[in-house]
Design a protein that fits this description.
Elements lengths: L5 H11 L5 E5 H6 L1 H10 L3 E6 L2 E6 L2 H35 L6
Parallel strand pairs: 1-2
Antiparallel strand pairs: 2-3
Helix pairs in contact: 1-3
Length: 103
């Protein structure tokens, strides 16, 4: 017999099929069940929303998901900077040539 809870076994089975399961846990329950929650996050790709006093305050996600999010943020920031650089060049060009060229 497994020493893991039925909930964890269910999460692990779904994760094998490639389905991460979002879950919600209170901060108090997280303190009591941190080993199981972290194991689900690590091995079953389970994502958790943590709430305190009924409000969402944090999320626990697998480290691979966090790295992917960081990569998207980094690439997005680079694209954003490039967009503003080109936009600034266009404004400077319009100032030099006048708006009549663009009409």
């Amino acid at each position: 017999m497994s020493h893991l809870s039925p909930e964890y076994e269910k999460a692990r089975a779904l994760a094998k099929r490639g389905t991460p399961i979002p879950g919600r846990v209170s901060a108090a329950k997280l303190r009591c069940h941190q080993r199981e929650v972290l194991a689900g996050c690590e091995f079953a790709r389970h994502r958790w929303e943590v709430e305190r006093h009924g409000k969402l305050v944090a999320a626990l996600v697998p480290i691979a998901d966090l790295r992917e999010l960081e990569r998207y943020e980094r690439e997005g920031a680079e694209s954003f900077r490039e967009f503003h650089r080109v936009q600034k060049e266009n404004v400077e060009l319009r100032a030099r040539l006048g708006d009549s060229v663009w009409s």
